[in-house]
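Researcher: Please translate sequence to structure tokens.
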Amino acid sequence: MSEPPHRRRAHASSEDLERYAGLFAERTRVMRSSAMRDLMAVTARPEVISLAGGLPDTSTFPPQAFAAQMTRIAQESAAEALQYGPTEGFRETVDCIVEVMGAEGMLPDPEDVLVTTGGQQAIDLLCKALVDPGDAVICEAPTYPGAIPVFCSYEADTIQIECDGEGMRIDELEDTLERLELEGRKPKLIYSVPTFQNPAGVTMSLARRQRLVELARARELLVVEDNPYGLLRFGGEPLPPLYQLDGGDFVLYVGTFSKILSPGIRLGWVVAPPPLMEKIVLGKQAADLCTSTLTQYFVREYFSSGRWREYIESLIGIYRARRDTMIDALARYFPPQASWTEPDGGLFVWATLPPYIDTGDLLAKALREDVAFVPGQAAYVDGRGRSSMRLNFSAGSEDEIREGIRRIGRTVEEQVELYGALTGGREQGSHHPGMPGREAEDMPGNDETQPSAEPGHSVTLPGPADGRAERVKGGDVLPFKKAEGA
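Model: Translation complete:
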């Protein structure tokens, strides 16, 4: 009679932990978890209203169409769809990608396109090919929370540039580039989400886009344009992507089907010139050999119907209504000291509370009320963002959004009342909307005159004293909508 299989021990003792700790690579010391992924287990509970993840509403995809497309694959291409595929992706998938990019005015060379396992892998592969430990990487402040763990994994020196209502502050970027040049350094890449930015929802103005491309060309800098949301526009006039303005010499492009079709298919892409593409392909070969053949066949079937733009138009109508519901709920349930962005598209609103409220602590209290959001600190590398939060309006129904904001607002109001009781009713943070990451005692004194704000106006708030983009100083510079009664 054979012995029963051995079971793994708990590995919870200090001796066990030390044994493994001695084996870890040095880079694991700076690796960071993803705030969104950490919340997934909690938000998966049916009783929790999640305003946290960047989830599109996949219930909007017609199940009959999904069944028909998968049936056709099974009947006509089962053997091929279940086989390995080329690392670069199938040409038919690339043709679909070129069609999507063409809808925003771009004309990439199909040879410059690599199909990736989601847009997240595209960011990782670019950093794998370009970034050595200590290399400078520049991004927005705040930035996509999922990019920060990638930059940390490759041990980059991540420098964040403030945003306002027109996106990344290019004047601060130029100051930072000058400073790095004096130090004998050059950033390996500038990462930006210029359209309906994650997490702030703001869009980079045309003038700043043009200037950023001019800087990239003049200084021979690589710019990574991450554009998951460009086709999800509810208002305003479309702006040319950075890739279109540049033509593909210095702007590298990252795209995904996650927001316009399905995140579950894990299909994205990166566009880069041949010298860089060669290294990116080698990195992907080592990572996963190829992107799922089955999901590439699904995308091919989906696009063959010719109705993909019609589906996006339906999403735009749904998401516009949900954004409006969230903005109305914020005005109704958040306190007068709160502020938030009002995006023309995308999936997110960025809300900022008085500086004495830590949204990391607030999340723990909100989860007890069965509602979740992403704390603002997840969008920074240096601890800023503590009084801000990212709120998603695409995944939940209008009723869920309204109720979720009501629950968060109630929790916020409790903290405001507690602070008022402890300070005798003084509201130090009420003059500093949109400014996370600075404690009340760090605020300018009461004798200073602060910029006034009218609802819907963009306000430039005080930044670092020397006007430079630093990794530990300054706060957000974002447009905001004051709550009614402010």
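Researcher: Any highlights?
Model: The radius of gyration is 23 Å.
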